[in-house]
Amino acid sequence: MNPALSSTSSLSAATATATASSSSAASSSAPASWFSGIVRGRSDKSGSAKMSGSSSAAADAGPIKGKNQFRGLLFKYGAKPIQVAFKTGEYKQQVIFIGGLTDGFLATEYLEPLAIALDKEKWSLVQLLMSSSYSGYGTSSLQQDAAELDQLISYLINKEDSEGVVLLGHSTGCQDIVHYMRTNAACSRAVRGAILQVVTNPS
Question: Which Pfam families does this UniProt record tie to the protein (predicted)?
Answer without folding.
Answer: DUF1749 (PF08538)
